[in-house]
Design a protein that fits this description.
By secondary structure, the protein is α/β, with parallel strands linked by helices. The protein has 12 helices and 5 strands.
Amino acid sequence: MNLVARKQFGLAPGAWRTYHQQIADGAGVSTLVRAAIDARAIVAVTGERGSGKSVAVARSLAALDDVKVIAPVRLARDRLHVGDIEDAIIRALSDERPRRSGEARSQQVRRLLGHASGKHHVVLLIDDAHALHHSTLRALKRLMELTWMGRTPLLSIVLVCQHDVISAISELALRSDQRTMLGLSAAEVRAALGAVLGERIEAPAIERIARQPGARAWLDLQRLVDDLIVAALAVGERVITAGTLDTWECRAPRREPAEPSATATEGVDAALARHAA
């Protein structure tokens, strides 16, 4: 992210953050989340970093009525364990203090989930779930097996992760569903560039960027636009043109000599690959 270049270019600081577009991936995630809530099931939304997983899930949940979302906030996700999840559930559903005894705390969770599930759709949301320890993932299966007054499961679980964490654990694989976000389509890239940049980007540049597989993830697209903004400012321009892309491709770092050189037909995607190398 190049905040200084964006400001000099005249782009609003939150231009990308405030842009809202219903993409095909997002619609699929919404369908999966609604199905998980209706069935009280475990689902996982996977995709590469920057593909928009967290945003798509958050928007899907925000659009639903009568949903109580519980999201543990422990920053070190690799150290998030079942005790943290139990604490998050207790604090979200009551003013009670979590019991000290592990067994008493689990009984407390069962009671609170039992009462809450009769009033709301309770959803446990865990972002960056690919960092969870296997023992924590297995504990989610036991959480889904809790029973209250003859009802089970008592909640739904939505995992957001960069890769599949469910298939490796048979206890979860047999009880869950998954959707992988594939990234932006060319039409969605065109719409985003047009909406965010407006008159600051010319149509031929939009078309060239939209055809590149390397611009399919939100963060990759934003990084590319930042680089093009810098390239435009370097020659005193306030508009991204096809010439801006040509200039930036020439200046992008090259691969090591031992690697095959990129062909001219690779365009911006080749430059992206060289830049990331």
